[in-house]
Amino acid sequence: MNHTDRIFGDGNDARDFEQTTIDGHYDIQDLGQTHFGDLWLIGHYSYRILPWLIVGTNLKLRNEIRVWQRIGMGFGMDLGAYFNPMDHYRYGAVGLS
């Protein structure tokens, strides 16, 4: 098998924690309860160029939610290589992230 691909989704959810701020007089003001969460969608692809060399990438999409409103979205990408010159001696490196 020379190709590998995968799509993966993940999320975390933290509910009902105290939200505060600091006013102009450096006093902490209570803003009440809030909600925060992250949703991730990650796509992976790798290709075996030679029997001992594999290259691949991860593409990421992040959606940040606070108080049930989307407040941010971001994209990311990782490139990597996996080098296996002899059995049981494996080396991996992230080239660009």
Descriptive labels:
97 residues; 5 strands
Secondary-structure element sequence? EEEEE
Spans with pLDDT under 50 lasting ≥5 residues? none
Fraction of residues in β-strands: over 45%
The main sheet comes to: 5 strands, antiparallel
* Mean pLDDT figure: 81
Give the proportion of residues in helices.
under 10%
Count all strands and give the number. Answer: 5
- Structural class from helices and strands? mainly beta
Structure overview:
The protein has 97 residues and is mainly beta. It has one domain. The chain has no helices and five strands. The protein has a five-stranded antiparallel beta sheet with strand order 1-2-3-4-5, with no helix packed on it.
Explain the layout of strands and helices:
Layout lengths: L2 E20 L5 E23 L2 E14 L2 E18 L2 E8 L1
Antiparallel strand pairs: 1-2, 2-3, 3-4, 4-5
Question: Concise description?
Answer:
The chain has one domain. Helices cover 0% and strands 86% of the residues.
